[in-house]
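Note to self: user wants both folds in one dump. Writing first protein now.
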Amino acid sequence: MQNFTEDSIREALREIISQELKIKPKDISDDSDIANDIGADSAEMINILFGIESHFDVEVSNEEASKNLTVQKMVNLLKEKLEMKSANRTS
């Protein structure tokens, strides 16, 4: 399993969002709301979630996604999920 840091999670998340929305990763700030600030519609949000789940091999529910719409909140959620997944593998 890849060892993800907060920075590597952020970088990968920005790349996933930028590929889906055809924008530059540098134009995505930590406090950007993926739907309201960056402009992802519902279909794009689904594709972003699929990209996240595929890249990180974790599941993100619609409820979790709707509560974590900023880049930083999503980074925090993914970091928590990856840490739990890693802990479960070592126990």
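First done. Writing the second protein, which came from a different request thread.
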Amino acid sequence: ALRTYRTDAPTVGEENGKSQQEFESEFQDYCYVNLHQPVEIFGDLSPADDGKYPEYERLVGYIRDSGSEFLVTVPDATHLGGDLEAVARAFLSLENMGSKVSCQDDDMPDPLQNALVTLGAPGASRERSEKIRMSMQNRALRGKGLGRPPYGYRNGEDGTLEIVKDESPVVELIFRLYTRDRMGMRLIVQHLNERGITTRRGGNWNVVSIRDILKNTVYIGTYTRFGLRLPGSHEAIIPRDVFREAQDIVRERRPLGRVSRPEPYLLSGIAFCESCGNKMMGVTRRQLWRNKDGNRSRATYRYYQCQSRNNQSVCGYHTWREADLEGAVLAQIPLAIEMRALRKLAYRNGGDKSEQALKKIWEERVRNAERRFSQTLRKTASGALKTDQLERALAELDKARTLAEKSDQPVDVSDMLDKWGERDFDEKRDFLLTHVARVEVSDHMARIVA
């Protein structure tokens, strides 16, 4: 086993400091109790001028050069980094070299779980977190509602789910349209929205919300939480036979066999409907027909379509063929980048409004990547996701930051566009994300903000 520690770690300050001798003595005791062979200790007093910890860097080199796998122990996660991102990077780096990382904490040895407690929300403590978790589990055991109740129910005074009289008929209608009338989810969405039947928050329905209702066992009186399943814990809205029929239909309509994954769309996330402001989503249509000679033919068509139209049936058609929209965007890029450069020259002292808007868009992209990383870290720590997904989230965060920096740098646009057909998807996507902040799409025109 190897030990690394930092005397300037946040938790060391909470303990009024520890000497190097104390850290090393703790490691020897830990190895003796857990039957590990102590190999070497790498202790840092403070970072170097470049912000790196010399002894930790020596630890990494030691593992890499030895070609062996080690158990790397730390007093707690703060000895790997001062924030969640730094801990995750150090953890993944050591794990990728074949070593295992463990905190000297009998209650929470996993570094990611330990980091969420020691570096999580200000004021959060392990004891308080554990009490909250146990309290929630006990409520679940008694069939008490946790968090926001599903549509059709509310949390009663005693904590159990109670039917909302204004909402339960809508739940019944959704199941009736799906089972008796054999109406698809998109048609149900259209049916509800066209009649002004809104969600609890007064918004439009979408396919995801309909699917969630059709698959939720809460509507037959079964409460499910924390892996617990409690039938008859509250009053049902839907009979069990109707619910089972709905599940059968869901399975019938699920595609069988190998489902091909369509190629991703270049303008995903940056193309928006000018009418409603929602995103334009990529849609793939497949057609199969029989020719006069009896042979079968098939074709695949790719479009961009307003997400509101596709999921909520509340916006106009606003559909563009993939090649047409992407071609319209590419044609505008040279002039848009040139105009952007001219604006910078004209407004060197602070930039114009469009430049500030572009900066805000990039800041939001980075913030979104940071949020996705935090969510992935929590799910990985809980065991819901694997570490490779955490690694991907960090890579996406790095990419968002890099592209945000590159968006302000000069680029050989002509060369990129002249050889567009030779570029792979990632190169094209990076170029667009770097130099196109937003594409506003109407029926007959697409306008880019660069």
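Dump finished. Worth passing along: The two ends are 53 Å apart (CA to CA).
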